[in-house]
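task queued by scheduler; priority normal; single chain, no ligands, no partner chains; default sampling; output format set to structure tokens
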Amino acid sequence: EKLFAAAEKDGVPLAGVSGFRSEATQKALFESYVKRDGEEAARKYSAVPGSSEHQTGLAMDVTGINGKCPAEDCFAGTKEAKWLADHAAEYGFIIRYPKGKDDITGYQYEPWHLRYVGTKMAKEIADKGLTLEEYLGEAVPVSK
């Protein structure tokens, strides 16, 4: 709520696209992606049920209030994505899957996918340009 309020104050109103997901919802999403794009492609942008950060309640996909580019690659070029990159850490969030780090995270760049880690950790991760995996110093297993 504080992050959304700050963004709105800065003239960049945000909207949540997807927060907590049950296992059944994640299963249905993943299966629809597999059907559309094949399993190998789906695993680059969607978690296997039981391994999604959305199932923890600590992740949220965000977009602009205008609803353009929700959880889509075109979100990367928006003022909302820039604002999140510049300010999310102030509110305890990281861009979970940063650009150019898919070999580490296992997922493609998702500037809309925020993960709550707390303000201290988020600021350290953002200041050093790290992924959560790099920050923790160990590889967090990705779905295979």
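post-processing summary
- The mean pLDDT is 91.
- The first strand starts at residue 14 and ends at 18.
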